[in-house]
Amino acid sequence: ALVSLRQLLDHAAEHGYGMPAFNINNMEQMLSVMAAAKETDSPVIMQASRGARAFANDIVLSHLIKAAIELYPEVPVCMHQDHGNSEATCLSAITNGFSSVMMDGSLKADGKTPADFDYNATVTGRVAELSHMVGASTEGELGVLGSLETGMGDKEDGHGAEGVLSKEQLLTDPDEAVKFVKRTKVDALAIAMGTSHGAYKFSRKPTGDVLAIYRIKEIHERMPNVHLVMHGSSSVPQDLLDIINAYGGQMPQTFGVPVEEIVNGIKHGVRKVNIDTDCRMAITGAIRKFFAEKPAEFDPRSFMKPAMAAMQKVCKQRYEEFGAAGHG
Ligand code: G3H
Ligand code: 13P
Ligand code: NA
Ligand code: ZN
Asked: Which atom of ligand 1 is nearest to the CA of 55?
């Protein structure tokens, strides 16, 4: 059944687990997430970015959501807009069958200019009010994602803040977070604490000076009933990096968010954990390996199958590691 983000995260909070939210762009990724949820008896959050909607087409995506629910009627599914940049993006997601939206007002609608508190709270509050009228949920974001190592906003996928940011901008302020949730009435709040999108998050295994899990604790202490969201939470597993590079890839060495740090965050109010990069790497590694071993193959089904199995394996691991398994 299609459920809202609020329904899923309230349940997660009550039972003390975290929900991975996996990005999808096509049928294969949707089927991989659903198979992992079924296998582990977990609920589902699937999310589509603006780029995913442009790639897959809104009509196709809306039918993919319906297909997921029809295929697995017993699995609770939340379909979420990832990083909506405007009211129009968020509302059109809902009219296309999404049950939840992120209004990311931490940046202006251009996706690269850091926004002030008032702009963010105003636009996010409007989206929350409208989404609640139709039973959908809203996630907001306060603080700008980027690296505490370099001060750079994450813009490698063509979105994210431009230029060098201050530590103040890169860490969500607890007092502002309280004000923001009160004013906007969001169902979940994404906070900045040193993670960034994509594969290149940290130059070494992160320690507390660059991955500020302490900030999650400080915010959770101020608002124990607010569901917190971690973006940029791929772990960038070394084994997936090694498979890609063993079969012709050229990804530089890099480090993600260790699973044990996410689990620590879940102990302090993190309920939604966004993961895209790990799934991308699993798919790419499987396809590179397949073609290295079977260069004569040309049937797309032959390489899509191992790619889907690799993504399903990552999803299964996160469901188990975050404690969502068994709560489907
Ligand atoms: O926001 C980051 C997600 O990984 C989605 O990425 O905008 O390339 O689809 P995307
Ligand atoms: P990763 O790039 O770490 O997978 O983050 C995904 C994300 O935050 C999507 O909103
Ligand atoms: Na999101
Ligand atoms: Zn994100």
From this structure: 9
